[in-house]
Amino acid sequence: MNNPYFVVIIGFILMAFSAGWLGLATLLGYPGVSSVGAVGVTLFGVGLGIVIFILSKLKSIEVRVVDE
User: pTM for this structure?
Assistant: First the structure.
C-alpha cells in the first residue's frame, strides 16, 4: 500500500456519512434500535475500524518544517 493516508480519509468520510445518517434518522423520528440505526452504527464501526487498522500499521510519522 503506497499511500495509507488515502484509506484513512475514506474511513473518516465513512464515519462522517454514518453520523449524518444517524442524525437524519433521529430527526425523521426513527427509533435508534431499528434497521436504519443498525446500518448507521455498522457503517460507523467499519469506518472506525479502517482508521484504527491503518493508523496502527504506521511505523513512524515524519514531520518536516520548511522555512521559506
Answer: 0.72
